[in-house]
Fold:
Amino acid sequence: MTTTRKWIAALAPDWRHKVSPSSVRSDVIAGLTGATLVLPQGVAFAAIAGLPPETGFYTAMVPTVIAALVGSSWQAVSGPATAISVLVFGALSGSFEPGSPEFVSAAIALAFMVGILQLIMGLARLGEAVEFVSHSVMTGFVTGAAILIAFSQAKHVLGVDLPKTASVADLATELFRAIPQADPRSAVIAAVAIMTAVVIRYFRASLPNYLIALCASTVASILLGGADAGIATVGAIDSVIPQLAAPALSFGFIRDFGGSAAAIAIVGLLEAISVARAMALRSGQLVDANREFLGQGASNVVGGLFQCYPSTVSFTRSGVNLDSGAVTPMSAIFSACFLFLILLLVAPLFAYVPVPGMAGVILLVAWRLIDMPEIRHIVAGSSSETAIALVTFVVAMLVDLDVAIFAGVLLSLALFLRGTSRPFLGVGAPDPSTPGRTFRLAASHHLAECPQLMVTRLEGSLYFGSVEYLRRQFRRFEVDRPQQKHMIFILKGVGEVDLPGADLILEEAARRTSRDGTFHLQIKAPRTIAKLARMKVLSVLGRDRIHLSKHDAIAKVVPALDPSVCAGCRARIFRECASMPGHPPGGLEGCASRSRSAEIGSGARDAGKDAV
Structure:
């Protein structure tokens, strides 16, 4: 019973205290604005997914309410979205005829599967895992999806039938050949929709430009003869009330479309988290990623029971919701209610909405999905992020959207792991120009080093992925610095130490001991000290070789240096050198001579490292 109460308390809306007469008024206005926005979006996104308009409207109502109640964000609004719609079409169009009852049934079952996967990820507390997936994956995917959307709608703009093909190149060729057979009326209707939306957005961006564009294209279609003249229309909506029904799931369906469901689940969560955090930056709210996973999962599971296709957070609806003054998720609930009431009144009018006009609106949606400033930012800022976006885009265009998501995610994880597997390893020395004993990178600051003792610093994780890289660097030290048999190894800012990392420490200590040298470890973090103790590092090294400060480590090592080498050394970089043979009268920590120094790191990062 206690566990049940904890779950109920954890899932209870944390925005209850924000509800007031003032917030309700703001949320009602924001909800009404959102309802007018999603009216054309519901039809457009459903068309992209190959589904009838009512499925888009159901998805704009049911998941919206569930995500508002269970999710974390106060202003994010869930429902149909472009990227998810493209994925649904790509996943099902090869097996079912778009728009057919079998296609619709499969899309509903897909929503249920997506919701289950998202719930599992939320219960497993994988919300933070999205931090490891580069945003460039979504940039490349959305850009590819936008181009595919444009190609899919071109036939409706031209009013021609095209053979079904999976190749973008073949589709482009067929479109070019079909231009002479294009229906001028369809092209005019699409152009009216596009120009109307562009003009409204330019002069009065606050108005629902898509809705007005659909109205203008409908008028143009009627003037040109409408359905009686052979112009395709969206058709009447059978029912605006979603019916409760179990999704048509089977083992065969799960086997065939499990990969697609996983791709849709990942894209939906990535989009939901990124939009929720974007809204939180503006509103000052803290977003719980795990709870957002649960909210998206619950909304898709319930949506799958009420004839909805997969949904996620909509950036456009969420931005408009916040700009309209939304205070709590009640605005999303009001939006769903207002949409239902509006549909009761205007549903019969969709029988007159022309398909070319809808295609024109969808072309604008696709155009606005291509974020050129973000693409330029990625290309100019990072070669690895550029590679991630490019690979995702190319795979989306040439292979499959599902595969593109997995390719982008795997590449971003691979590059992340490659970065963590090459932590910064620097060689330092005391800088005599600073007060006290500040250590800096020896090579960068042209500092003298002790000919027998090297002081190294590691920044990054000492784990199985970085062990081989660090082992190679230690071997380089042996070859390049054979006289520096003693080492002080500073674990500074270490993110993680595992058993292979601990074994590497002991291995290096043993190698230096075999060369008549010593290995000392300097570390401050109590958590890391406790870990190394559990892995027997402290007991094997001996507590006399574990130090909390560089001062203690140097004071322990210097007396163990070879006196004959010290006698001829003029660097004398440590205060402790004063007790060693050959100390010049009045000598301080100076730089009478320079010894060759080096630092090992990851390219450009080395320049940013300073104190050791």
Summary: Confidence is low (pLDDT under 50) at residues 585-610. The chain is about 60% helix and 5% strand. The CA atoms of residues 454 and 582 lie 20 Å apart. The beta strands are 77-79, 312-314, 424-430, 439-441, 453-459, 486-491, 519-522, 546-547.
